[in-house]
Amino acid sequence: MNRLEPVDPAKLAPLKVALLGCGVVGSQVARVITEQAEDLTNRIGCRLELVGIAVRNLDRDFGGLDPELFTDDAKALVSRDDLDIVIEVVGGIEPTRELVLTAIDHGASIVTANKALLAQDGEALFTAAESRGVDLYFEAAVAGAIPIVRPLRESLVGDEITTVMGIVNGTTNYILDQMTTTGADFDDALAEAQRLGYAEADPTADVEGYDAAAKAAIMATLAFHTRVRGADVYREGITSVTSNDIVLARKLGCVVKMLAVLKTDVQGAVSVRVHPALVPSSHPLASVGGAYNAIFVESRDAGRLMFMGPGAGGSPTASAVMGDLVTVARNRVRGVAGPGESVYAQRAMTPMGEVETRYLVRINVVDEPGVLAAAAAIFANHNVSVQTVDQSPAVARDGEDEEIAVLAMMTHQARESDLQAVVRELEERSFTRGTVEVLRVEGK
Amino acid sequence: MNRLEPVDPAKLAPLKVALLGCGVVGSQVARVITEQAEDLTNRIGCRLELVGIAVRNLDRDFGGLDPELFTDDAKALVSRDDLDIVIEVVGGIEPTRELVLTAIDHGASIVTANKALLAQDGEALFTAAESRGVDLYFEAAVAGAIPIVRPLRESLVGDEITTVMGIVNGTTNYILDQMTTTGADFDDALAEAQRLGYAEADPTADVEGYDAAAKAAIMATLAFHTRVRGADVYREGITSVTSNDIVLARKLGCVVKMLAVLKTDVQGAVSVRVHPALVPSSHPLASVGGAYNAIFVESRDAGRLMFMGPGAGGSPTASAVMGDLVTVARNRVRGVAGPGESVYAQRAMTPMGEVETRYLVRINVVDEPGVLAAAAAIFANHNVSVQTVDQSPAVARDGEDEEIAVLAMMTHQARESDLQAVVRELEERSFTRGTVEVLRVEGK
Q: A327 at the B interface (CB within 8 A)?
């Protein structure tokens, strides 16, 4: 260990920073780097020099930034030999992966917000960064402004995390919140979200759960010290959630939330899933509204921690990028890199069929004697124990001469494969009308 | 930057770790180091070797740990030249400060939980650590298991924090929670807390707010990049909170909480205060029960973040210590230290008299015509605008022939010095019986 003398930041050569992407997040990052230069220099111990901003199309608004910085040749930018840090906020898999690997190969540290890329190809990127001796930081990839990556990666690294559960996608939380508070159906709530900028023109990544699954994979890899990829995550979006589900949830004292649920079992195997779920109204997650995110972490020594904050948006995401930027810059000044990944545990992944949780099963049935008993017998035959039953008349449709009832059964803890067997058998029965709807129940 | 090859942890010499203190926290730390050795080795990249545990008295239960490790000569232990890390969980100012400085001087990195020492003498310790090139980490000093130091120190370091507000002392939160839920008065609630181990035999540090003030000073120093000492913090404990206050708070739709409030103003000056306060029942802080802590952080880009979790206790505090231990150990393995302090900002401290907030003022007055008008006039004369007034008869006492009324006035935002002037004038008036009680109101 050396005795260190304080160095005047002005005497050091500035750190050269390249920015890939200048959209909602990138433009805010560029603004902060420019406008907060003095504070940043003081905090880092060295100046930052933004040397290039790669964008798709140079025919654009430069937003007050120096037009000379902009280039549409991202490959040339990351191939420079003099970059200290590359900030990647353009997203997507290709050509972004190639650009990041090129930057690493040329000795630049990386700050990224790219959950999809990390969930799919994190291993290759971390390996490249570690062997090249550069940093790869990614707080902005999960839960926007909420510091969750750093706590999982560094604060809880002396502890044993057993459960992570949370709301990590602002778009779906906003949509479900709208459906809950206004009674809107999914399509109308999605349209409203798009109108307000909470959902993309193509909302697939959010509403089909790909975004949440990528974030869940990243968090699971950190929390359980074992490689989990996006493809390993059981994924179910919210496109099948109806206003009937919302009404039924309220009747049962719950709300519908899009959750990421990450658990280890006593043998140390890991299950990771994202799907809509009923959550009791009294649960702290139930009150997380709009585009906010919230994450519960349970561990051996710390007990139960909760983190909450804005999960998306230009400024919140930029906050996370800037925190990583300062950290990585401080490392560059001292000629070091932070610790790399810790993925030694090689835990087994629990197949979804083996996962145990609680379920709400809703079916339309002909309202005749014996139907309830028959339905209940199916549950019993598959070892699924029912906790509560709610039966009420369905809204009659024109031309229908049958009396239809809606049966809602909430189960105790049950195994997924058993529950799916119940569903298949119910759907085969002559008393069932339409399909069987299932929502998992968490936090109860 | 070097290209790094992975190193087999077993081939490296273990890192030598000394533990100062083996109480509730220290014993859990020692247990985790011993029982989780394999996981820790994998996460650090090197083994840890606990080489000594300094305690006050060797005539004690060794709790399953190797008795050979124990010593009552802490000074000799920290004077060794071969220590990598010293964990300080003994607390207090002296001789702890001397021990920590000695350890630093001999080249050991420090992990501490000592909020009192850091709030009083942080500057000297950080300066010593930085010039010696060793780490000084202190997550366990603030808010138990909740990662708050690391987010303030590293995650939000590219952002501009404007407000930090929270419950950071589990003892006082437990006592006030008891008073609220059971109607107990302060003395009985304190006795119950002591019985259950939530309060010390000598509870002064907690109930008089010294503990909260030290934590507030540490958080303010991190959040605002400026030196704030414990003595700079306006401090008021909870010993004057009565069950009348609790009842009145409920009547006004609030609860009484012991808060730390840290703010910057538009000129960048800083105010830091700890005191009991009314908080609206709908505010998230209002539902933080028992010995839990919760901290709100508001910043320019991130918006509003909340962190919540166990604020005290052996295992929660040990979790924070272990996170720092692994981080510091990883640094030692790579021959580096983390960034030191960032306290360049030299902000002015706002005197308490200039602080603005809302107030609940409660006085007993003779129930006679003109008293309310006279009281209201005093507020007006000192520029304190009243939002709501509640007047009700006081409970009559034996032998009293006067009719006494309780006047409760909630103000709009007002300046502390103006409010104190109002209080002094009210106390001088002949219509006032007893003293004037004041509770600040936050989050409304």
A: yes
